[in-house]
Hints:
The protein is mostly beta strands. It has seven domains: 2-75, no CATH class; 100-308, Jelly Rolls; 370-460, Immunoglobulins (Immunoglobulin-like, Sandwich), CATH 2.60.40; 471-561, Immunoglobulin-like, CATH 2.60.40.10; 572-662, Immunoglobulin-like, CATH 2.60.40; 671-711 and 928-977; 718-915, Rossmann fold (3-Layer(aba) Sandwich). The protein is 10% helix and 38% strand. The strands form 14 sheets. The chain has a 17-stranded mixed β-sheet that branches. Strands 56-53-52-57-58-59 form a six-stranded mixed β-sheet, with helices on both faces. Strands 48-49-51-63-62 form a five-stranded antiparallel β-sheet, with no helix packed on it. A hairpin with a 6-residue loop joins β21 and β22. α6 (751-768) runs antiparallel to α7 and α8 packs parallel to α9 (864-872). The longest helix is centred in the C-terminal third of the chain and has 18 residues, at 751-768. The chain is flat, with a radius of gyration of 58 Å.
Amino acid sequence: MYQSGDGASAFDIQIDAAEASSRGADPDSPILFPDKDLLFTADFKKSGDDLLLLGHETKAVILGYFKDERRPGLATREGAGLSGATVDALAGPDSPGQYAQATGAAAGLLAIGRVEKASGAVTVLRNGVSIDLRLGDAVTKGDVVQTGSNASLTIKFNDGTVFSLSSNARMVLNDMVYAADASANSALFTLVQGVIGFVAGRIAKTGDLKVDTPVATMAIRGTAIHTEISAFSGETRFSLLTEPDGTVGSFVLLDRTNPSRVIASITDPRVSTLLTPLAGTDPRITQVTKSTDEIRGENDLVRDLFQVFSPEPQRRGSSDPNDVPIIPVNLPEKASPPDPSQFAVTPFARERATSRDIVVPSSPTVPEAIRGRAVEDGPLTRLSALTDAVASSEAIIVLLPANLPPGVRYLAGTRSFSLDPSHPAYQHLGAGEREVVTIAYNLLAEDGTRVPASASWTVTGENDTPVAVGDRIAAVSDAGRTLLAVRSNDRDVDGDAVRVVAWTEPFEGSVFRNSSGELVFDPGNGFRALSVGQTATVSFSYTLSDTNGATDTANVTLQVLGQNDAPVAADDHIAAVDEAGQKLLAVRSNDRDVDGDAVRVVAWTGPFEGSVFRNSSGELVFDPGDDFLALSAGQTATVSFSYTLSDSNGATDTANVTLQVRGTGTFTSPSQSDSEGAVLGFNGQPVSLTVDAPSATTTSTANLGLVIGLGPVLQPQMNIVYLIDISGSTSDTFDGTPVGDLNGDGATNTVLDAEIASLIALTDRVRGLGFSSADVSITVIPFNGAADPANVTDGGAVNAATFSLGQTGDAAIANYLRDLDAGGQTNFADALRAANDRLGSLDQGGESNFLYFLSDGAGQGSIEDEIATLNDLYGATITALGVGENANLSRLDAIDNTGGASVLTSPEQIDISVLGRPLPSGTVTDIDVFVNGREIVEIGPEDLVATRNGFALNASIGELSRLAGDGNVVSATITFLSGETLSAQLNIAGALPRSTDLIL
Length: 1000
């Protein structure tokens, strides 16, 4: 917890100014402040050399901020910040004056502006005192003006510049130099937070007007501007305003740390520019189009500003139009009452009153600070409490503070102060360091007026010699080095770092300085003769030096204590250890103890593979277990472990044991497989994928086998019925492509010849589709006036016949058709009835039925019932064909259910598309093999070898992890033409011991 100089406590944030400044590459870099909310809303307060930032919930202190004349800025991590001058103004002096109103006047402080409008709680922070502002009050350079909640303030400056502050706004009037006829006028204002608008006056046109914000500096050449600064981040919104006469100016935004660099130019009054601070880079610039309501509000602001904005002539050459001085609040004045004789009072008269001049008594001036210098440990120095101007006045009384600084005395006889720079309070000063010792007091004039005064010395530090203090160190071990912390009791009053620069050597043993600058005692072998409990004393001296070269010397006495000597455990290397069976390890055979004590193994580590235990005789035993069984003849594996040896006094030593295990035989791994099966959706074919590989490997390669099983494809069962018209009218000439005399009746190119030719061609085309003979039957039903059997013709009665598909069946069908002769009437109903009868025995359920009905179209009989049975019961597809160009299709259309009967003029015209095609077998289009997520691109479908039941593939896969504990994931995926996939996966374990030698 930090206790500030004024008693306030800050618990939340504490920053050391010197340390924070030293972190920056540039000594002028701002101090990084971690709380962006607090930085722009806090009340700043000076407490001695420290800066306090006081918020509603958070308090912070920056230690030593005011220790010297340098004032670093404060910045957030994002880059928004306040300059050192602004922080100085916000904090005010260490001992502010009493609360006062901003009325009255004093010499020396001239007004740079005046309050034109004030509403609500508006104040000015002047010399650390908060003063209420009222209409007409003056403001001066260095003031901090601020508004409270629901408050507003308008200030007009001497050059005509007008600023308007909304509620909760804060602004610093850093500087203003202005004379009406001058060309070197300048002004600098800092906007800390809130919504602030302004119109630039004459300085912007003829001089240098800059307005600083947390993120950028505005350089202005005369225009109206609106800004809004976030109180919780420093994010700033800039807006260019349109003046009442339509004039639009411009301004540029400069880098706060490099004022010569322009980061943005603002010329468009229709958009706002938002600067958001970002860490380590320029602020982010965002252009935001103004809404209608925003433009309307800005126009109202401009009208209010320009009601106040107007050029005013200066009076009597002053930089203040009203020429009224400002009273500094820390200089209270005791004014003498005015002399009544100076006033002439005219009795009341209606005509007019005579004006009178009032003479204001002059104010006492503050004497300049009295300064002197002193050197640490130097002679007494004296400073007069009075300046030369008042030293001769015996009436001046020096009023001392309650307490004087350390080493300071007041000499009443000479009305002076003396400082003893050898006082302990100043011994901490290092060479060249300075500390200002200040006495704040008051001078009491004869008329009772108190005038504050001060006297101060700048004390310059001198280097103080470090103090080396002798050391006596007991119980130093006679074996092993001992770190001697001889500097632990040494000191340097200046706080300088000290180091050992020289030392002498003891009579026995030796001393050296390690890399950390500490002295180390090494007894070597000089004290090995000491028994347990015996001691020997040696001494040496060392020289201590500070960073400025001042030195001091001290003695060190060491008492070396004889101790038990630890045993010495020697490393062992044991070869030819079998991969199976336990091995006794005689590790103690080469160990020794200089004291002759008995030694034993008390602890050991486990090797990476195999295990070690201690048997009942105290010897270590190595058990390889199953960890090395994968070694083949000629292969070896090396493992190691450490063990700890102890003597009877508990002293220990540790050594390493290396074992080389040799393999025997040849390693073989059992095979493993993984399978996945499925049924292809498009054809119902059962398929499978089997992957075969070893379950473990000691090499980086392994054989991989793939078997793809393809089961049978079940084709749909199909019944095809040929209904062929053999009535007498089919002996007429066929009006189409000549076909010859196919039935050998002596008549060429008859309708019956064309029917026979067409069905022979149809049979051949059906077989060409690839259907299996087991899946397709063809039934031929000749018909005339009757069917199955047809009426007797010249060749006798003709019965229907059913044939299988294939070359043998094709020939039988052709021979059957060639034996048909024409004769008799034509009855379509009997033909269709015969087809229904045949399908009744052929269709076992779920089969596809097709009818090809060939006729010249001249048929009789009622066909509706038979057609309904074919359609509804058997779902038959009926293709009706009128044979010959002159065929009558009227009745055939009633039979056909494929879209209407068609004329057949050539045997090749019969449509077979209604039959479809056989379902194809599944086709493997892709093989993807992965090893540990890496695709083996060399393996593809082209590597498959056909087998009786599918395909097989044998390949070698590489880049396997072969060490014990490693695993290899091998997966295979096959893709069928239908897009369906099968996958299988195996894990191949690494089996080779991780300690195997010569693994490349």
